[in-house]
Amino acid sequence: ETDGRITIAADSDAFIVKGLISVLLAVYSGKTADAILAIDGEAELAKLDLASHLSPTRKNGLFAMVQRVRELAAAATEDAP
Q: I need a labelling partner for 40 at 20 to 30 A (CA). Which of 14, 27, 30, 48 fits?
């Protein structure tokens, strides 16, 4: 976290997961915890229609990553002075 903004870093060996991570970074990284919590991640991803192109396992993994980012942002707001 820098200046109240959260920097997210993630990686994967699988190319498809790398791509999904890149999408999540574009949506969430560099924003404040409050801004992250204000984003409807599922709605943002629905705009890209990604879910229709992913296997159920990849889709579940993607939404699990969204949930984890939200959990981290919520924890950051609790820790804020």
A: 14
Q: What is the pTM of this model?
A: 0.85
Q: What is the CATH number of the domain that holds 60?
A: 3.90.1010.10
Kindly report the average pLDDT of the chain as a whole number.
91
Task: Please give the Cα distance from 42 to 44 (Å, whole number).
Answer: 5
Number of H helices, E strands in the chain: 4, 2
What domain range includes position 70? 5-79
- Report d(CA 59, CA 50) in Å as an integer: 8
How does pLDDT run across 29-47, given as a tens digit for each residue? 999 999 999 999 889 989 9
